Amino acid sequence: MSASVSHALAVHGSGDARPLRIAFGVMLAFFVLAPAVIYPVFLMKVMCFALFACAFNLLIGFGGLLSFGHAMFLGTAGYVAAYSAKSWGVSPEIAILLATAAAALLGWVAGLLAIRRQGIYFSMITLALAQMVFFFYLQAPFTGGEDGIQAVPRGRLLGLVDLSDMAAMYVFVTAIFVFGFLAIYRIVHSPFGQILKAIRENEPRAISLGYDTDRYKLMAFVLSGTIAGMAGATKSLVFQLASLTDAHWSMSGEVVLMTLVGGLGTIFGPVVGAAIIITMQNYLAQLGAWVTVVQGVIFVVCVLAFRRGVVGEIANLIRKPL
Amino acid sequence: MEIFGVPTQALFGQLLIGLINGSFYALLSLGLAVIFGLLNIINFSHGAQYMMGAFCGYFLLTKLGMGYWWSLLLAPIAVGATGVVVERLMLSRLYKLDHLYGLLLTFGLALIIQGLFRNEFGSSGQPYPIPPELSGGRNLGFMFLPNYRAWVIVASLIVCLGTWYMIERTKLGGYLRAATENPSLVQAFGINVPRMITLTYGFGVGLAALGGVMAAPIYQVSPQMGSDLIIVVFAVVVIGGMGSILGSIVTGFGLGLVEGLTKVFYPEASNTVIFVIMALVLLVKPAGLFGTQK
Question: Hey, where are the domains in chain B?
């Protein structure tokens, strides 16, 4: 069934990795130089969401699985990181590790349930599971309900570096983002990633070749949830806040939008998409509900006329995978 | 009188609320199932269209002075007509693509619709009066039954069963089911399948709007009345499986009742119980209670 998704996806193939290297260099240079002209907290927000979208894209772009519940990983990891850093006083790297592990565990449980159905059902199940997680956080005492967990201390990295210093925090977030991004790149280009693409293109054939496709799909789901969790944990330390917004279904929709705008199944698309959507939200913030309307319009336009996304269009233009 | 330590008044009160919620679950999941059957897309804007139905009734009352009964007739037609336009202009372009694009498109539409209404009306609810013919209620001895609520349950049952009859027992329904199985063959017999698809989408959307009008006097009319509901209805659809019309009706009412009972015995879980049941059903019977795994 996913065969037709791939028509809209960028060209894949081993081939020339040079455009990818150049693009990576440009991206890295941007995040290194941009703090000179752009507010660093905004850039860190972009990086957190870019990582979140990359994790989501691992699932839809390379596994053909559309999760509509990825906010559960962002929210869960955010709460675990914020709670452990604030109430237990653990150092930031431990908080992020704990939160990422929690997201991985949630990914495993949710994945076991969700991969039992295919296609559209998969999306509905992930959405419903995420809503269940949301209601849990709404009522659980440790999340602070509507207030969230506020004034989360950023702490000292490895007990040495004070992360309340903006420059140190920026370097830390950039390192996490680059690590996550390269991890996804590695996963996609590993034998595991190739099998995942085979499953996306034709699951029965992958089964007939002897692959236990459920195991691969579950693994992809866990990996995607884990990296999404890493993004959520980092985000809660950046903003020193973990709140219900991150676990709400509208967040799941936003990450779909970012990836769609940037380009499903492209390596750099989610990063570009996240930057576009976050920038847009920033400029339109004072317009209230119009943000939702604009996002809806972008969704409709992308689906009807712009299915390759920004990066997908560029990749198509230069006929190289990006 | 008490049952399991719960006063019967409270118990039956919650069961009634459960049945009311169940009526809407059944109506909405039925609409989703009808649309999915022919179009193979999940209509994410179903909740927004339910809300449009409620607002349509509200406009008819406040702007044109037309009462509940007119709304019950006109709102589904009006909202269904917008559905027809959406299908012709947008959805029809996506049938050759992966079905996920239909989901994404209707999600975007839901955001647009809900955002526009929230701009206009804010987040607060607008009251909609119960029609005078159905105000008041009767004492059944063990509980007080408001007439309007009884009407909602009965009306929803009639609409659901009527839809079931139309699809399973009439010639038109036969064409519909045939087109679900093999559209190109049905088209070869000279039946205008694209038009049937358009009208089916309009009908499903109309069902959602009808639910909205019926809900208006109970839940108030507010822009986000459909957004959380639709996620629960998705879970209902996963539990019931979309293969069977009767299945989605039974599941809708049944889950409403279960939710009502949970409110009595363990209120903390009342928001999540349907999702928990969904998880259990997925473990035991992945295709859903009434579904067949394709």
Answer: 23-225
Q: Alpha-carbon distance B46 to B32, whole Å?
A: 7
Q: Is the pLDDT of residue B75 over 80?
A: yes
CA dihedral B244, B246, B251, B253 (to 10 degrees): 160
Domain with A123 in it: 2-318
How sure is the predictor about A10, in pLDDT bands with cuts at 50, 70 and 90?
A: very low
With CB atoms and an 8 Å threshold, state whether A253 touches B111.
yes
Q: Do A4 and B98 make contact, defined as CB atoms within 8 angstroms?
A: yes
The reported pLDDT for the residue numbered A9 is: 46
Q: Which residues of B touch A121 (CB under 8 A)?
A: 238
CB spacing of B107 vs A299 below 8 angstroms: yes
pLDDT band with cut points at 50, 70 and 90 for residue A94: very high
Mean pLDDT for A220-247 is 94
Question: Cα–Cα distance between B170 and B176 in angstroms, integer?
Answer: 10
Overall size of chain B counted in residues: 294
* Residue A75 predicted with pLDDT over 90: yes
Please give the model's pTM, rounded to 2 decimal places.
0.90
Has residue B25 got a pLDDT over 90? yes
User: What is the reported pLDDT for A290?
Assistant: 87
Q: Give the distance from residue A222's alpha carbon to the nearest chain B alpha carbon, in angstroms.
A: 17
Please tell me the total number of residues recorded for chain A in this structure: 322
Neighbours of B230 (CB within 10 A): 24
Q: What average pLDDT does chain B have?
A: 89
Smallest CA–CA distance, residue B85 to chain A, in Å, is 15
Q: Which amino acid is at B263?
A: K
Interface ipTM: 0.88
What's the domain count of chain A? 1
